[in-house]
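During the second half of the funding period, the structural biology subgroup turned its attention to how the target accommodates small molecules. The most pressing case was zinc ion, which had performed well in the primary screen but for which no bound structure existed. We therefore specified the complex as follows and requested a full 3D prediction, including the ligand pose.
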Amino acid sequence: MRRLLVAMAATALILGATGVAAQAAPAPGGPGLGDTYFPDYGNSGYDVGHYDIRLRYTPSTDKLTGTTTILATATQDLSRFNLDFVLDVASIYVNNRPATFAREGDHELVVTPARTIAAGGAMTVVVQYSGVPSTKVAAGFTAWTRTADGALAIGEPEIAWWWFPSNDHPLDKATFDVSVSVPTGVEAISNGSMPRPPVQETLGYTRWSWRSLKPQATYLTFLTVGQYDITQDTTADGQTVYNAYSQLLSPEWRDGAQASVERTAEITDWESTLFGPWPFEARGGVVLPPGSISFALETQTRPNFGASFFRRGANTSVVVHENAHQWFGDSVSVADWQHIWLNEGFASYAEWLWSEKNDEGTAQEIFDYLYATYPDDASIWTTAPADPGTAELFGDAVYDRGAMTLHQLRVAVGDDAFFEILRTWTAEQRYGNGTTAEFTALAEKISGQDLDALFQAWLYTPAKPVLASLAKKAT
Ligand code: ARG
Ligand code: ZN
């Protein structure tokens, strides 16, 4: 979405330099966006503004059929472009004419439109498809999860390939309409709010429609299908809260889940006092069936939680964590997967702040505990949070050492500057992308301090930082 401006600037430049429209030869778009860890995720040559995803899904067969309509803008004179997708494509239309297409590698779909698209020109891409997502392997695995009563399209970074064709990288965010027809009596849940209530369309099938009004990364777009109890309420500021609880939860887990997820509005209200205004138009949470997904994901407006987070009763930390991501990850997204600590370190630090607020241990106490407890040879010390590699993308260095880095920053600059840094970050990068270098530059600008030694030790060095020298700085 944000690269639109770049495309228009480039077009203006060509016109400005010569006074007439220069005839650049149309060229194919690229199969990636140059991500450091995932060079073939996303595609170049166009920028998506909106996805309209319209599906039918049958849990008993895992059969998914439907149409995704992509509204995009060419960012170059485009002869050909790629989509990331693994299901079976029946037809593609581009700007009113049938296009030809071919598969390349395990998730690339190469589309050749009947006519070249000029830089800055609109593209309407209609893809009709079907398939059994659980049978498709790409990047060595299947991200689509079948459950006892439905299915889950929830994953990071990979998930979109299994249910809609896309430009699959957080650099290209878009608004979404997701509309799914499922057997009547089954629920289909996605992001945002419902532009219309579920409607029975044909004998035995009911269509559920969801809409995201703010830019959303493809991996934060989810589909949860199964038997769920849905609660609906309204926040003080008039936002709809939809929560959903799997009917497969035991009564004990269900109580713990409800005692946590029903506090979403309170928790996000508190987070907004620290991080700035809630960035989206709806809130909520989804608690998944036991034995399905073991992690939680900050799916935009409405996180999904693995049931086992609530196996010992309430767990508000995970609600704090996934909702903190709505600012750090969802509104401000990584520009490159290498910068993942900007998501996980910040969401983890939000949990420390929640503990501090509730008199369950200060951030300093948590820092001291982690610093003293991780063995010297643990991956948290041997991995640099700012460059964890794919193997440690979701490892301790990214989560705990990322949060420890933020705590050291807070100690160094003081609370006023620290929270001003966080709020300026979420305001300046809102609905866009960020990098580690942009964040550290902002921290130095707002604090007026040279923080190079701190960030070098905590973010860039694969060794346990020495505390004494840093503690001196702070006083
Ligand atoms: N972003 C998610 C979280 O905060 C983590 C997802 C990890 N993915 C996975 N496949 N384990 O907690
Ligand atoms: Zn997280």
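Two results from this model are relevant to the next phase. Residues 3-19, 470-475 have pLDDT under 50 and may be disordered. DSSP finds twelve helices and 23 strands in the chain.
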